Amino acid sequence: MMMSVDADLMRVLADPLRLRIVTLLARETLCSTHLIEETGAGQTNLSNHLKVLREAGVVETEPCGRFTYYRLKSDVVASLAVQFADLAETARVTAENNVKRSCP
Fold it and tell me: Are 11 and 80 in contact (CB under 8 A)?
C-alpha cells in the first residue's frame, strides 16, 4: 500500500539553502560559524533556516560552550527516502500493469 510523501517536510527541504545545510550536516556535525563559512549565508538568514529545520525535526542541536552544534537526524531523511522508494515502486507496478483510468 502506497504511503503519501510528507509534503511539509518536502517544503522544508525544497529551499536551496536548507538543502545545502542538510547536505553539509549529513557529512559532519557543524556549528553556525562553520555553516556560514560553507554556505556564504548571513548570520540572520542562516539562523532563520536552522530554526525551520529544527522545528521540522530535521536537525537537532548540541550546546558546546558558547557555540551550538547542529546534527542531521538521519532517521527523518531515511523516512523520506522510504516514502519515495514506495512511490517509485507504485509507479513501476502501475506502468507494468498499464493501469489507467478511462475517460468519461
Answer: no
User: Residue 104: how many CB atoms within 10 A of its CB?
Assistant: 3
- For Cα atoms 83, 13, 61, give the angle at the middle one, nearest 5 degrees: 105
Q: Give the burial class of 91: count Cβ atoms within 10 A of its Cβ; 0-12 exposed, 13-18 middle, 19 or more buried.
A: exposed
What's the CA gap between 17 and 4, in Å, rounded?
25
pLDDT tens digits, 47-89: 999 999 999 999 999 999 999 999 999 999 898 889 889 989 9
- 102 secondary structure, DSSP code: P
